[in-house]
Amino acid sequence: MSWTLINKGDHRALQLADRHYTRQKPGSNQFCRPRKNLVLLTEDEKALWVTWNGIRDDGWDAWECTLFRNEGNYLSSHLIVLALGITRHLWGEPPAEGIITYVGEHLRGGCFHAAGFRKVGMSKSGRLLLQLPPDRFPPAMEPAEGGLFRHEIIIA
Predict the structure, then answer these.
(1) pTM of the complete model
(2) Domain limits of the chain?
(3) Cα atoms in the 13 Å half-sphere on the side-chain side of 152
(4) Residues 82-113 as b or e (16 or more Cβ within 10 Å = b)
């Protein structure tokens, strides 16, 4: 399994983003917030990850996972840990409060919990607020030959 760094307008990513429950304007050519975004797509094009770094109005000194979708056979928690390692490699040490994400109550955040995130609150719209502090981040993950971030994952 490998993650590939892609552009935030990549048409393959747009298809996955359009099927995500948070997508506000399916069919539009952008799915990322303004500022700095790290967008990863799995080699089989069945999982998408976006880390965002911008000016926050909620007081958090943290990156944010703004989108994660997995339609493939790889365990979501493993994909999350690998994406975090890639983010750390490309962006350096995480900010003071690590990374956060908001997860729909209907999902309960199980894959994020398995990856080390903990519930720290709720959003105004009723989504779970999850956080992974910097001391729980995986190590930086460097790309293999060809620029792909490869890692062996055994599917049980």
Answers:
(1) 0.85
(2) 2-150
(3) 1
(4) bbbbbbbebeeebeebbbbbbbeeeeebebbe
Choose among 147, 145, 132: nearest CA to 60: 132
- CA 52 to CA 37: how far, in whole Å? 5
- The C-alpha atoms of residue 17 and residue 15 are separated, in whole angstroms, by 5
What are the angstrom distances between the C-alpha of 38 and each of 34, 63, 99, 122, 125?
Answer: 12, 10, 13, 25, 25
pLDDT digits (tens, 9 = 90+) for 96-134: 999 999 997 766 678 899 999 999 998 888 889 999 999
Alpha-carbon gap, residue 67 to 17, rounded angstroms:
8
DSSP secondary structure letter of residue 139: P
Beta bridge partners of 65: 51, 101
- Decide if domain 2-150 falls under CATH 3.40.630.30: yes
